[in-house]
Structure formats: structure tokens, C-alpha cells
Amino acid sequence: MTVEELRRFIREIPDFPKPGIVFKDITPLLADGPAFAFAVDRISERYRGKVDKVLGIESRGFILGAAVAYALRCGFAIVRKAGKLPHETLRASYELEYGVDSLEIHRDALHPPERVLVVDDLLATGGTARATVELVEKLGSRVVECAFLVELGALGGRRKLEPVPVFSLVRYEK
Ligand code: AMP
Question: Could you say which DSSP state residue 157 is in?
Fold first, then answer.
């Protein structure tokens, strides 16, 4: 398997969830054992010994992030849409490519000075990941890098996350 081959498993759905958005559907990639394992391995190997906790963003970030955390033998923490977490939370608002929303994390999810890897399926404008980085920093920990399966390069998410580094496996320029 190569990164170029991985691209074939990402399906494009035009005008979902609203007109003008081309949704990158990763379910064919998840459904293929070698493709899913390749993606998780490529992300995990980059961080071996370099992070203490993996933080997954709802909801597809949970799928990838949990697999990466398992591979690294790290703990896994979650960031969810507002109102879903049951214990005491911190909240940050963000803009999505298609809307505005808030994210929350449990106040006891991280233990400073843990080195945190943020994982999500896709980087678009960067609003979601930026809000997640803010939550980590408010809790006194440090984001080592934000890792994504897919990056939509034209939307500039990477710049929005500066100075936090970004890694992506599959990049689309437009
Ligand atoms: P953003 O905050 O703009 O970087 O958006 C990233 C979040 O929205 C990720 O959690 C993605 O799952 C989702 N997302 C945004 N745009 C797309 C897209 N074109 N295809 C699939 N998911 C997307």
C-alpha cells in the first residue's frame, strides 16, 4: 500500500451536506483492512515515544485517534460537540466549513505537562482543530502536532494552526 493507493479509498460526494461542499467520505478506507491499517500505521509510527496522549475530535477523529492511541500504547481523550460530555467541561467555539459550533473537553481529560497528539479525519479551514488546540492549552498541556488523514490544502487550515505543526497523509490542493 502507498499513500497514492490510499487516495482511491476516499470517496467524493458532491453537494453534501450542502450545495458547494465536496464531502470526502472515508468509509471505503475504513472498510478495507489493509488501507485502514496502513493509514493508522503511518500516523502512529511518526509519534512513537513522542506523545503521551492522543486526543480525538468527534466523530471520525474518534475512529482514527483510538486506533493510533492503541498502536502507541497511549491513553485516549476526546473532544466532543457541546452538551455531550457528562462531567465538568471547558468549551471553545469554532467555525466549520459549513457552520458554527462549540467543542468541549472534560477538565480532567489531560494531565499537564502531557504531550498531546490531536487526531481528526480531515483538515479543512482548521477551525475545529484550532479550537481543540485552545482547549488543550487552557488545560496546561502542549500539542505536539495535529495529524489528519486528509488535508484540503486550498482552505488554509495549516496556517490557522500555526505555530502548531500539521501532518496529513493525503493532501488535496483544491
Ligand atoms: P474545519 O474546522 O473547517 O477544518 O473542518 C474540519 C471538520 O469538519 C472535520 O472534523 C471534518 O470531519 C469535517 N469536514 C469539513 N469539511 C469536510 C469535507 N469536505 N469532507 C469531509 N469532512 C469535512
Answer: H
Ligand 1 neighbourhood includes 41 CB (under 6 angstroms): no
Over residues 82-96, the pLDDT tens digits come to 999 999 999 999 876
Rg over alpha carbons for the chain, rounded to the nearest Å, is 15
Q: What is the DSSP track for 12-50?
A: EEET-SSTT-EEEE-HHHHHSHHHHHHHHHHHHHHHTTT
Sheet arrangement for strand 166-172: 89-96, 99-106, 75-81, 53-57, 115-123, 142-152, 166-172
Q: Kindly state the average pLDDT of the residues 151-158.
A: 97
Among residues of the chain, what percentage have pLDDT more than 90? 94
Separation between Cα atoms, residue 160 and residue 127, nearest integer Å: 8
Over residues 106-132, mean pLDDT:
97
Beta carbon of 168 within 6 Å of any ligand 1 atom: no
